[in-house]
Design brief:
single chain; alpha+beta; Fumarylacetoacetate hydrolase, domain 2; six-stranded mixed β-sheet; five-stranded mixed β-sheet
C-alpha cells in the first residue's frame, strides 16, 4: 500500500536527560481549572465540573521548545486579541479507561511547561454563538511545549509556582495547588470519556492573569522543577 502523499509526521518532544523523543498522540485541554481564572472569564468555578477540548497533534500546531533555547511563533491570522495561557502539561505513559483517582499517577510518564495560545476574540465569538472553540484554540503554532521531565525523576507534581512573564513583566503568577481539579482527578475524569493511550498530552488549565501578547514580545513560562520555555512572537 502506498499513500497519495506523505502522511503527517509524528511530533516528538524532548525528554530531559536522554536523547529520546516522546511521540505525541492526542492533545487534551482542560477548561477553566483555576478558580480565579474562571472568575476572570465570567464563570462561577464552584459549579463547573471539568470539561475538555482538543488541539491538533501535528507539527504545525505542537511547537517543541528545547531546553535553554527560544523558539519563534507567528502572530496568527484573523485575530487582534492573541492571548497566552501557561499550563502544566502531563504526558501519559500508560493507557487506560475508567482509571481510579488513586491509580492515576501510575499512568503519568512526565511533566512539561506548555502554552495554550488562544485567539481570544474568535473564541469568545464562538462561545457567544454556542459553537465549538476550534478557531480560537486549535490553530497553527497554538501549543508550545517544553522538555518533558519523567515522573521517575520529579515525583508527583501537585504543588509549585507557575508563572509567565512578557518582556520581563509578570503577567501570571499562581501555584499548582490552586487547581480546582487535581492532575489525578483530571486523568480519572478524562479516562471516562476517552481511552487514554501512551503519547497523550493533557494541558491541565491556566491560572488568572491571561492577556494579550503582541508581535515582537517575548514570553517566558516557568513551573517549579521543570525546564522553562521561552517563546518569541514574530
Amino acid at each position: 500500500m502506498s499513500y497519495l502523499f506523505p502522511p503527517v509526521a509524528t511530533v516528538g518532544l524532548p525528554v530531559a536527560g536522554t536523547a529520546d523523543q516522546f511521540p505525541v498522540r492526542r492533545v487534551y485541554c482542560v477548561g477553566r481549572n483555576y478558580a480565579a481564572h474562571a472568575r476572570e472569564m465570567g464563570f462561577d468555578p464552584d459549579r463547573e465540573p471539568p470539561f475538555f477540548f482538543c488541539k491538533p497533534n501535528d507539527p504545525e500546531s505542537i511547537v517543541p521548545v528545547p531546553a535553554g533555547e527560544a523558539v519563534t511563533i507567528p502572530y496568527p491570522a484573523q485575530t487582534s486579541n492573541y492571548h497566552y495561557e501557561i499550563e502544566l502539561v502531563v504526558a501519559i505513559g500508560k493507557g487506560g479507561r475508567d482509571i481510579p483517582v488513586e491509580q492515576a499517577a501510575g499512568h503519568i510518564f512526565g511533566y512539561a511547561v506548555g502554552l495554550d495560545m488562544t485567539r481570544r476574540d474568535l473564541q469568545m465569538t464562538m462561545r457567544e454563538m454556542g459553537r465549538p472553540w476550534e478557531i480560537g484554540k486549535a490553530f497553527d503554532y497554538s501549543a508550545p511545549v517544553g522538555v518533558l521531565h519523567p515522573l521517575s525523576q520529579t515525583g508527583e507534581i501537585n504543588a509549585g509556582a507557575i508563572e509567565l512573564t512578557v518582556d520581563g513583566e509578570t503577567r501570571q503568577n499562581s501555584d499548582l495547588t490552586h487547581l480546582i481539579w487535581s492532575v489525578s482527578e483530571v486523568i480519572a475524569k478524562l479516562s471516562t470519556l476517552f481511552e487514554l493511550q501512551p503519547g497523550d498530552l493533557i494541558f491541565t488549565g491556566t491560572p488568572e492573569g491571561v492577556g494579550a501578547v503582541k508581535t515582537g514580545e517575548r514570553m517566558v513560562a516557568r513551573i517549579d522543577g521543570l525546564s522553562p520555555i521561552t517563546v518569541d512572537v514574530v
